[in-house]
Specification:
Mean pLDDT: 95
Helix content: over 70%
Distance between the termini: 20 Å
Strand content: under 5%
Structural class: mainly alpha
Low-confidence stretches: none
Order of helices and strands: HHHH
Number of strands: 0
Largest sheet: none
């Protein structure tokens, strides 16, 4: 059973985490898009065919490190999304539970 305090904490969490969630989403989007720019910049420093430049870019330490940054950004975004979904689900369950209790009293 979800009590009123738990539901209130869930609402507070949703309100208080909104900016952090937006930041996590923005970081993820930037990291995913910057990967393309980074690849092009690395490719421009290599000679040879486009395929050879691309292969060298994918092997570059900076590119590989950036993949780690993308992994971290995706993790943070997904974690925040899951936490917010859990808080929302708790609120929905509390609302249903409260409505059922009110209906049982009538």
């Amino acid at each position: 059973m979800i009590n009123d305090d738990e539901a209130e904490r869930a609402v507070d969490f949703l309100r208080d985490s909104a900016e952090k969630a937006a930041h996590a989403r923005a970081e993820r989007a930037f990291a995913e898009e910057y990967r393309k720019s980074m690849k092009a910049l690395i490719m421009s420093h290599h000679e040879g065919s486009i395929a050879l430049q691309e292969r060298n870019a994918y092997m570059d330490e900076k590119y590989i490190a950036h993949l780690g940054a993308i992994r971290d950004a995706v993790f943070q975004d997904e974690l925040m999304r899951a936490q917010r979904e859990a808080a929302h689900a708790k609120i929905m369950a509390w609302q249903t539970q409260s409505a059922n209790l009110r209906g049982a009293r009538i």
